Amino acid sequence: MATESAIREGRHFKTTEASAIPGEMVDRYLRDVMPTKPKSEYAQTRHLLWWKQELGQYSLADVTPALLAQFRDKLASGITPRGTARSPSTVLRYMAALSHAYTIAVKEWGWVDDTPMRKVSKPKEPRGRVRFLSEDERDALLKASRESKNPDLYLAVVLALSTGARQMEIMTLRWAQVNLKRGAITLHETKNGEIRALPLAGHAMELMTERAKLRRIDTDLVFPGRKPDKPIDLRNAFEAALKAAGIVNFHWHDLRHTAASYLAMNGASLSEIAEVLGHKTLQMVQRYAHLSHAHTSRVVASMNEKMFGGMK
């Protein structure tokens, strides 16, 4: 009866591991699994260490779906180090990090028979936001980035705007992925697991050509930090540039939205935008459809004016 009750409550753990604590699970995950996920290492390590701290007083056998739901709500109502509320998307990322650790503990380590995360409801993500820079904002941000004390910010922003690449794709970019003769960047490790090519053209190509002449010899990273094997952290420099440019309600990921929005407004089809951004389906780029339609309407109106303007 006790076992059946434990199963119903999501507490059915293998006897030998019942006394283990979530911190041990997190530590082993960070040691054995995280090195295989370099793109996610920074964020997921932070998320998992939060769980380790919050669940530190419990054993794995005591961590129930109800308990995890309490901490989910604590995450949702908490304030970030920057003084802002956590979004549902952020809470989901925290939950996903712990969920994968439990999945490994079930399938590979045999520590647990089931994961309690399976029974914890996830917060509903808001409809995908589309915040992109107006022409004036774009010019102001580029000016502030060029004048930044951080010499890497301007190039990183230009690459984001010109290619639509994700922040981590840019920050972890290596020279072996850059082909200046072909004018292309090849991304081997992308979010959807497929190889993607980014065209390098115009100003971005000029800047990358100049950067190649000054590249550091102790690392292959295009944007190395103080430690040659770690990319630079541009968060503070980017926030300062936004403030200097007078731009509010804008995040780094919105540079990707800006690239997609400008593609739409310049006549790119949704399938072409999806290909540039690396989306497998059109669902994620439907948010830009109205911009493409608006552009098409202007083109049609201009065409009609030229064809029939003198027939009034």
Overall pLDDT metric = 83
Proportion of residues in helical segments: 40-55%
Outline, from the CA principal axes?
A: globular
Task: Provide the gyration radius in Å.
Answer: 24 Å
The poorly predicted ranges are 1-16
Q: Care to count the β-strands?
A: 3
Task: Provide the β-strand percentage band.
Answer: under 5%
Q: Quick one: CATH superfamily of the largest domain? A: Intergrase catalytic core
| Sequence of secondary-structure elements | HHHHHHHHEEEHHHHH
- Class derived from helix and strand content: mainly alpha
Number of helices: 13
What summary fits the major beta sheet?
3 strands, antiparallel
Count of all domains: 2
Strand order of the largest sheet: 1-2-3
Task: Describe this protein's structure.
- The chain is mainly alpha-helical.
- The chain has two domains: 2-119, DNA polymerase, domain 1 (Orthogonal Bundle), CATH 1.10.150; 135-304, Intergrase catalytic core (hpI Integrase, Chain A), CATH 1.10.443.10.
- The chain contains 13 helices and three strands, in the order ααααααααβββααααα.
- A three-stranded antiparallel sheet has the order 1-2-3, with no helix packed on it.
- β2 and β3 form a beta hairpin.
- α7 packs antiparallel against α9 (202-213).
- The longest helix has 22 residues, at 88-109.
